[in-house]
Write a structure and sequence with these properties.
Layout lengths: L6 H10 L2 H7 L5 H11 L6 H11 L9 H11 L6 H10 L8 H11 L2 H17 L3 H13 L5 H10 L5 H11 L5 H9 L5 H12 L15 H4 L1 H4 L4 H11 L3 H16 L8 H13 L10 H13 L3 H15 L4 H7 L6 H9 L6 H9 L5 H14 L5 H9 L5 H14 L5 H8 L6 H14 L5 H8 L4 H10 L6 H13 L8 H14 L4 H9 L6 H12 L4 H11 L21 H14 L5 H6 L9 H12 L2 H12 L6 H13 L7
Helix pairs in contact: 2-3, 2-4, 3-5, 4-5, 5-7, 6-7, 6-8, 7-9, 8-9, 9-11, 10-11, 11-13, 12-13, 13-16, 16-18, 17-18, 17-19, 18-20, 19-20, 20-22, 21-22, 22-24, 23-24, 24-26, 25-26, 26-28, 27-28, 28-29, 28-30, 29-30, 30-32, 31-32, 32-34, 33-34, 34-36, 35-36, 36-38, 38-39, 38-40, 39-40
């Protein structure tokens, strides 16, 4: 009878479906053999001999092989062997203080097995450990119950909640939330209401309330009802608690009436303690998120309150969320109030974007604001932005008029340039180009003009954009280099590559501009691939951040050439210091960060042409973490050759992690090999 003497022998048994051999190996005097045989039996179909072998490992006392009982418990959980429940519970009760610390595998296994016996046993253990040793074991048991979600645990958990506050309250609440039983609703409401609960516990309670079934909302209570118990949470200083409580209140008519009262009270008294600004903002945000919930036959009061907060609130967040709510709730009727709010410098851009998304946006009014001369600078800026967002071609002439008006404020002309770029009108290219190359104009205006040229992409403006990319004005350069991505031609690609290369020289390209050049090459796509490949050959000379961006850009390309470059970078030997390189030797190899980034990108591809470079990542010189990613990518390829390479790698191991076992299971499944009947 064959005796396993190494991991390679165990892998051969696994791939042969040899349950008997693995059972025999669990009794080996060699630590690694017995340990990994136990792990591999967890992948069996649960034949009696495998289960008995695992029970034998689990019951060992003073066993000479540390970890064997841990792995036996995990394997029995993986097999969902119900007969193991009493043994696992005994480990929790009798041996939780032992050196082996088997609490975690026992709890994990019980959660995987499930069933009434496991639930009852875990609740008994929980009662004991919260009495004599609160902490680690109690947390593990509660996490196990949260995964099992047993309704029968609700009543005991509620009792535990009141008896052992505050030691385990937050985790018990999270467990109740995971179970999602309506019977917990009343207790969770009380915790959400009580100021003594503390910020974290109140948030956990409100989060758990969200997990209750919609049909069971609100939880049945005599007095007070659910809604008043959420008032405190709705104005809780923690914004997330306030947001969640607002969403819960919006589920019922009484709750929505309270939210309306919050808007009313805040409009009468902005400093009212029961309607602080963040609570008002939470109401507005939820109206914007779910306007249909607040639909009423006569929405006039809602409109008026939202307009009031948009106009009068001293808090920008409230004004911004009120604008969002008004646009979502009132639709086209919000146009007048939003046009007025364009004068609010702190929220003007956000309001302009909302106006652009209105059904039937007020195009004529925006044009009048832009060109009529009565609007403030902020309003004109906002009007230009909104016109660009609307995308109406008829606005181009008005925007061009503003752009070419040298007497107009720079901020308004800048917004007009942005809008013309958004419209992508070719007739705007020539005026924008003239503005971009006019060094007498403000740098900010020239920068936005060249950005717009990149969005339009008119071929005859490329020389202007190239000249601006080499401008002495930093703001102009910063916009011109990204703008080159709008010109997918050889001249632009070459210039972008030079910007990246020159970043390695003293007083060369600024880091931000070099990063923008790499990003632009990625946006250009296939025409830029030869330059990206050439840059990868000199990746050692680039900064770490820039090299990572270069690798990410190559990773986004599906071409075989990009795959080949990633494979070459990933398989490069580790970098050496200058003192390690002898005279006459070649340039130093790629740095560790580049190898890691290239390896990660390569494993994400998982295509057949990656087979060889992925296999090279399994060698001893690869960076930590590359092996698992490479194995998973080979499994994704899924060919017989890829599977054989995974097996060849696993046979060389001196230890097996969980992902090794998962890989063996995947190959066995593909080959229809079963461990058991």
């Amino acid at each position: 009878m064959e005796q396993a003497s190494s991991i390679a022998d165990l892998i051969r048994m696994r791939m042969d479906g040899d349950v008997t051999g693995l059972c025999r190996a669990t009794r080996s005097e060699t630590h690694d053999v017995s340990l990994y045989a136990t792990i591999l039996l967890g992948s069996s179909t649960g034949p009696p001999e495998a289960v008995e072998a695992l029970f034998a490992c689990l019951r060992q006392r003073g066993e000479p092989h540390p970890g064997l009982r841990w792995q036996a418990a995990k394997a029995l959980g993986k097999l969902r062997e119900r007969r193991a429940v009493p043994e696992l519970l005994r480990l929790l009760v009798e041996e939780r203080h032992s050196r082996e610390q088997l609490d975690r595998p026992a709890c994990d296994a019980l959660a995987a097995i499930g069933g009434p016996e496991a639930v009852s046993g875990l609740l008994d253990v929980l009662d004991q450990v919260t009495t004599d040793r609160p902490g680690y074991t109690a947390a593990l048991v509660l996490d196990a119950l949260a995964r099992m979600r047993p309704p029968e645990a609700v009543t005991p958990l509620l009792a535990l909640l009141w008896h052992h506050l505050p030691d385990h309250a937050e985790r018990v609440v999270r467990t109740l939330g995971a179970i999602g039983d309506p019977r917990a609703g009343s207790a969770l409401l009380v915790l959400a209401h009580a100021p003594a609960s503390g910020t974290r516990l109140r948030r956990a309670a409100v989060t758990a309330l969200h997990a209750l079934p919609d049909a069971a909302w609100p939880p049945a209570r005599r007095y007070p009802s659910a809604e008043p118990l959420l008032y405190e949470a709705q104005r809780d200083p923690d914004p997330e608690t306030a947001r969640l409580a607002t969403a819960l209140l919006s589920r019922t008519e009484d709750g929505r009436n309270h939210l309306l009262d919050v808007l009313r009270a805040a409009s009468r008294s902005p400093h009212h303690p029961e309607c602080p600004p963040h609570a008002v903002a939470a109401v507005c945000a939820h109206v914007a998120e779910a306007p249909d919930l607040f639909a009423v036959p006569d929405p006039g009061e809602y409109h008026a309150l939202l307009r009031h907060h948009l106009r009068e609130s001293a808090v920008p967040t409230v004004r911004r969320t009120a604008a969002l709510a008004l646009s979502a709730y009132a639709g086209a009727e919000a146009g007048e109030a939003l046009l007025e709010a364009l004068s609010d410098a702190l929220i003007s851009d956000a309001v302009a974007d909302l106006i652009a998304r209105l059904p039937g946006p007020p195009l004529q009014e925006l044009l009048e604001l832009l060109t009529g001369g009565d609007g403030t600078v902020t309003q004109q800026r906002g009007a230009a932005r909104a016109l660009g967002g609307i995308g109406h071609a008829g606005a181009a002439q008005a925007l061009l008029t503003v752009l070419e008006n040298g007497m107009a404020p720079t901020a308004v002309r800048t917004a007009a340039a942005d809008a013309l770029g958004a419209l992508r009108r070719t007739e705007a290219a020539a005026p924008l180009a003239a503005l971009a190359e006019d060094e007498e104009q403000p740098g900010t205006l020239r920068a936005r003009a060249v950005r717009a040229l990149g969005l339009i992409g008119a071929p005859d403006t490329l020389p202007v954009v190239l000249a601006c990319a080499r401008s002495r004005h930093e703001a102009v350069r910063a916009q011109a280099v990204p703008a080159l991505s709008g010109f997918p031609v050889a001249e632009a690609v070459k210039a972008l590559g030079e910007f990246v290369t020159h970043s390695t020289k003293p007083h060369g390209t600024e880091p931000d501009v070099a990063r923008a050049a790499v990003h632009a090459l990625g946006l250009i796509g296939a025409p830029a691939l030869p330059v990206l490949v050439a840059l990868a050959d000199g990746v050692d000379n680039l900064s770490e951040d820039l090299s990572d961006r270069l690798v990410a850009t190559l990773a986004a390309r599906p071409e075989a050439g990009a795959t080949a470059v990633l494979g070459r970078l990933a398989a490069a030997p580790p970098a050496r210091t200058a003192t390690d390189a002898a005279v006459g030797q070649e340039r130093l190899a790629a740095s560790r960060p580049v190898r890691e980034a290239a390896s990660a990108a390569l494993t994400e591809r998982g295509t057949s042409e990656c087979l060889t470079p992925l296999t090279s990542l399994l060698g001893p010189g690869s960076w930590s973490g590359a092996h698992e990613a490479a194995v998973r990518a080979l499994l994704k390829i899924g060919t017989a050759e890829a599977h054989e390479r995974v097996l060849a790698y696993c046979r060389t191991m001196t230890y097996l992690y969980d992902w090794h076992v998962e890989a063996l299971d995947a190959v066995a499944e593909a080959r229809a090999v079963r461990l058991g009947p």
